[in-house]
């Protein structure tokens, strides 16, 4: 589920690693401090990690280098192929998505960067409830993604993109399922997670939620 954007990622796979270093002015702020963001997610991870939306494998590589074992899930076949070019057989990247995936025998952290917004809010609720059931107490959800402090902030970000004539970015912000921190906070609370949010740039925040 939430796989309606896969064609975009198949197409983007060959240039994605250029975008994250800021070659596209429209997305420069979104990817500002990209590697630092991935490093922070890695530092917050514990034990065996389940990673969703691995893309070209940049976070996967950092997690493996930090000594974590990783179950990697990515729905785009071309993104999986790019990640294999980078990681060889260090990890088996499996076809799946946030809601349908092979469940590892043991798992302590569930992580994702720049991907959770591909689920609608209804799907996000379903996913968080599922993760709440499969994580033991102390298990963590660590997601870095674009999110907003309020609906008003979301509206303003779209207006800013249009005013800057960043029309591709504006379209993304309007058509993908970016959400608000208050929404995530309330869903996580309902599912027995204690959560904190840290701002990384004008768009991206890291959400760290610990199962109680
Ligand atoms: C912007 S890329 C981020 C890649 C990588 N995590 C990173 O930080 O560079 C988003 C990734 O999420 C994947 N994706 C899209 N829909 C998804 C879904 N429903 N479940 C899991 N991953 C999804 C895309 O195929 C793509 O590889």
Automatic annotation (TrEMBL):
Residues the entry annotates as binding S-adenosyl-L-methionine: 53, 74, 97
Enzyme class: transferase
GO molecular function (one): S-adenosylmethionine-dependent methyltransferase activity
Keyword annotations of the record: Methyltransferase, S-adenosyl-L-methionine, Transferase
GO biological-process terms attached to the record: methylation
Pfam families for the chain: Methyltransf_25
InterPro entries: Methyltransf_25, SAM-dependent_MTases_sf, Uncharacterised_MeTfrase_YrrT
Job of this protein: Could be a S-adenosyl-L-methionine-dependent methyltransferase.
Annotated family: Belongs to the methyltransferase superfamily. YrrT family.
Alphabetized PANTHER family for the sequence: TRANS-ACONITATE 2-METHYLTRANSFERASE-RELATED
Protein name: Uncharacterized methyltransferase E6W99_12500
Organism, scientific name: Metabacillus sediminilitoris
């Amino acid at each position: 589920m939430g796989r309606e954007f896969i064609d975009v990622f198949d197409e983007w796979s060959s240039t994605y690693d250029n975008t994250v270093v800021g070659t596209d002015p429209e997305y420069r702020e979104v990817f500002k401090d990209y590697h630092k963001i991935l490093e922070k997610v890695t530092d917050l991870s514990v034990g065996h990690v389940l990673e969703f939306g691995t893309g070209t494998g940049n976070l996967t590589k950092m997690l493996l280098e930090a000594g974590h074992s990783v179950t990697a899930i990515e729905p785009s076949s071309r993104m999986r192929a790019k990640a294999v070019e980078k990681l060889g057989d260090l990890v088996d990247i499996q076809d799946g998505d946030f809601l349908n995936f092979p469940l590892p025998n043991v798992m302590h952290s569930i992580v994702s960067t720049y991907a959770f917004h591909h689920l609608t809010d209804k799907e996000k609720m379903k996913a968080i409830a599922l993760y709440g059931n499969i994580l033991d107490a102390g298990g963590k959800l660590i997601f870095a993604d674009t999110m907003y402090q309020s609906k008003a902030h979301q509206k303003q970000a779209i207006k800013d993109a249009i005013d800057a004539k960043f029309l591709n970015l504006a379209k993304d912000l309007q058509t993908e399922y970016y959400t608000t921190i208050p929404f995530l906070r309330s869903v996580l609370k309902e599912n027995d997670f204690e959560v904190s949010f840290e701002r990384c740039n004008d768009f991206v925040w890291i959400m760290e939620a610990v199962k109680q």
